[in-house]
């Protein structure tokens, strides 16, 4: 895996991933940034959320569960002093599907958090990580 990060102006940076995609990052105004893009640590949190959401959807699909939507709402706390690592992260999953079983979602969340989501597991080395979820049955809506 490769990534190239280039300084563009003030405290703005553009990252180009090995797959050829670009992402802009910026700093807070009080740190010389212009607040035009997410902060690098926000990107890290978003990456972990994307990683675990991907796992949960894939696990449910492979189990032939009718998942139609998955959202991960995350809250995090950081250390007060440098390095300001994440100290607590909570993932709350809202998973929707027709006839989707709570036990299937719980299993998918557990597998992601304990085995598959590299980003979340890595962040768990410095942060107390917790999870919760809710299942929304969309059978009646159909």
Task: Describe the structure concisely.
This protein has 142 residues and is of the alpha+beta class. It is built from 3 helices and 6 strands, in the order βββαββααβ.
Structure, explained:
With 142 residues, the chain is of the alpha+beta class. The protein contains three helices and six strands; from the N terminus they run βββαββααβ. The strands form two sheets. A three-stranded antiparallel sheet has the order 1-2-3, with no helix packed on it. A hairpin with a 2-residue loop joins β1 (3-9) and β2. The longest helix is centred in the middle third of the chain and has 23 residues, at 40-62. The radius of gyration is 18 Å and the shape is elongated.
Give descriptors for this structure.
142 residues, alpha+beta, N-terminal domain of TfIIb, GMP Synthetase, Chain A, domain 3, 2 domains, elongated, OsmC family protein, KH_dom-like_a/b
Could you give me the name of the CATH homologous superfamily of the largest domain? Answer: K homology (KH) domain
Mean pLDDT: 96
- Radius of gyration over all CA atoms, rounded: 18 Å
Strand percentage: 35-45%
Under the CATH scheme, the architecture of the largest domain is 2-Layer Sandwich
Number of helices: 3
Helix content: 25-40%
Strand order of the largest sheet: 1-2-3
H and E order: EEEHEEHHE
Number of strands: 6
Shape type: elongated
| CATH level 3 topology of the largest domain | GMP Synthetase, Chain A, domain 3
Supply the CATH class of the largest domain. Alpha Beta
Biggest beta-sheet profile: 3 strands, antiparallel
Structural class: alpha+beta
How many separate structural domains? 2
| Termini Cα gap | 42 Å
Low-pLDDT windows of residues: none
């Amino acid at each position: 895996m490769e990534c190239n990060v280039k300084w563009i102006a003030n405290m703005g940076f553009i990252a180009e991933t090995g797959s050829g995609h670009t992402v802009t990052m910026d700093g807070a105004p009080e740190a010389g940034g212009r607040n035009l893009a997410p902060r690098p640590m926000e990107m890290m949190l978003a990456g972990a959320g994307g990683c675990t959401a991907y796992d949960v959807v894939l696990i449910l699909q492979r189990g032939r569960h009718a998942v139609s939507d998955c959202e991960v709402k995350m809250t995090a706390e950081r250390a007060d002093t440098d390095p300001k690592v994440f100290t607590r992260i909570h993932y709350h999953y809202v998973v929707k599907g027709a006839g989707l079983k709570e036990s299937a979602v719980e299993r998918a969340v557990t597998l992601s958090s304990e085995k598959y989501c590299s980003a979340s597991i890595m962040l768990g080395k410095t942060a107390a990580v917790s999870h919760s979820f809710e299942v929304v049955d969309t059978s009646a809506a159909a």
